[in-house]
Design a protein that fits this description.
The chain has two domains: 15-44 and 271-357, Aspartate Aminotransferase, domain 1 (Alpha-Beta Complex); 48-266, 3-Layer(aba) Sandwich (Aspartate Aminotransferase, domain 2). It is 39% helix and 16% strand. The protein contains 13 helices and twelve strands. Helix 4 crosses helix 9, helix 11 (270-294) packs parallel to helix 13 (343-357) and helix 12 crosses helix 13 (343-357). The structure holds 4'-deoxy-4'-aminopyridoxal-5'-phosphate (PMP). The site of 4'-deoxy-4'-aminopyridoxal-5'-phosphate (PMP) has 13 residues, from helix 4. 4'-deoxy-4'-aminopyridoxal-5'-phosphate is lined by residues 38, 90-92, 116, 160, 164, 191, 193, 221, 223, 229, 234. Aminotransferase that catalyzes the conversion of aromatic amino acids and 2-oxoglutarate into corresponding aromatic oxo acids and L-glutamate.
Length: 358
């Protein structure tokens, strides 16, 4: 007797990065390097461990479900009213909540492909129909084709900017035209998980540029530049209506007490975040340049990872890197995503890449 939905059998599972400890054990090495989950390698920000430790003393109590202090701090930092903010257990949870808040079964969620692997899972769990629009040959969103693919059933269109896993971004003129063209009854979700790594001034900050439009919602995370991947905090900036609906469908208490405390402490460390992002960006540019000697069509990245468009060679490249103790993220048939690590980790990866391509 089957108890679960048959359609889930067709759904690819979310693949988390492999454990470096397991790989090191398998290879008999002291340690392996994981460049597969787009984390920043410099440890928690100053003050975060202390804030979390202090919060744990109250952990027999429920957290503030309204995340009042955190929303107030985010509101002040990003220049929006707290009513327009929702927080969640990572921005991936908020993406799911947005879809739950907008789509009924059979409604369409439209997104570029390839993009963040959670989108199809989110669509399916909400009962929404996934509509995927292929990226351009340069691995970027094809916003014209995406706008043309909107139908009467479309409720949500996701623009991942910069795009995971290709690192490409859409620029101001294109995004302006796209947002103008999408009908007012369709929510445009701009997922800016990697915004802090953007250096191209022509890639717009969606909170500053579009969030005042009633049908735009912006997703941000504290997992990447802010170093809180393990504590799970993301936030959404949208209209009061959309943010309020998301707060309604959110799993109760899903921004934990430690997550709230850590986020409040991290937000005091913006100068350090900028310093760390600058290190990542310098390494991103160095790694991109080195990789282009092996693979000329590595696209420009505005994020903290690079994309190797290896097509059917992706899995073999990933396996070759693992044999050298470096975990990367292959998407077979498409390419390989490699997170920027410390300079030493990146050197290990580049050495592995040379043998993998040879
Ligand atoms: N959006 C994108 C584009 C991502 O790449 C990720 C993380 N891989 C997320 C959202 C979710 O991040 P988190 O849930 O850790 O906030």
């Amino acid at each position: 007797m089957r108890l679960t939905r048959a359609d889930l059998d067709q759904l690819p599972a979310y693949v988390p990065g492999r454990s470096p400890a397991d790989l090191a054990r398998e290879l008999g090495m002291a340690e392996a390097v994981k460049l597969a989950s787009n984390e920043v390698p410099y440890g928690p920000l100053p003050g975060v461990v202390e804030a979390v430790t202090a919060a744990v003393a109250q952990s027999h109590r429920y957290p503030d479900m309204a995340t009042t202090a955190l929303r107030a701090k985010l509101a002040a930092r990003y220049g929006v009213d707290p009513e327009r903010i929702a927080t969640g257990c990572g921005s991936v949870a908020l993406a799911e909540h947005v879809v739950r808040a907008t789509c009924l079964p059979g409604d369409e969620m439209l997104y570029a492909w390839r993009s963040f692997e959670a989108y199809p899972i989110i669509a399916a769990t909400a009962g929404a129909t996934s509509v995927r629009v292929p990226n351009t040959p340069a691995h970027a969103h094809d916003l014209d084709a995406m706008a043309a693919a909107v139908t009467d059933r479309t409720r949500v269109v996701v623009v991942c900017n910069p795009n995971n896993p290709t690192g490409t971004s859409v620029r101001r003129a294109e995004l302006d035209a796209f947002v103008d063209r999408v009908p007012e009854n369709v929510l445009v979700v701009i997922d800016e998980a990697y915004r802090e790594f953007v250096t191209d001034p022509d890639v717009p900050d969606a909170i500053d540029t579009y969030a005042d439009r009633p049908n735009v919602a912006v997703l941000r995370t504290l997992s990447k530049a802010w170093g809180l991947a393990g504590l799970r905090v993301g936030f959404l900036v949208a209209s009061p209506e959309v943010a309020g609906a998301v707060r309604k469908v959110v799993t109760p208490f899903s921004t934990s007490m430690t997550a709230q405390a850590a986020a409040l402490a991290a937000l005091d460390q913006e100068a350090e975040v900028h310093r760390r992002c600058a290190l990542v960006v310098a390494e991103r540019d160095r790694v991109t340049e080195a990789l282009r000697k092996l693979l000329p069509d590595v696209p420009d990245s505005q994020s903290n990872f690079v994309w190797l468009p290896l097509g059917d060679g992706a899995a073999a490249f990933g396996a070759a890197c693992e044999r050298r103790g470096v975990i990367v993220r292959p998407f077979q048939g498409d390419g390989v995503r490699v997170t920027i690590g410390t300079p030493a980790e990146n050197d290990l990866f580049l050495a592995a890449a040379e043998t993998a391509v040879a």
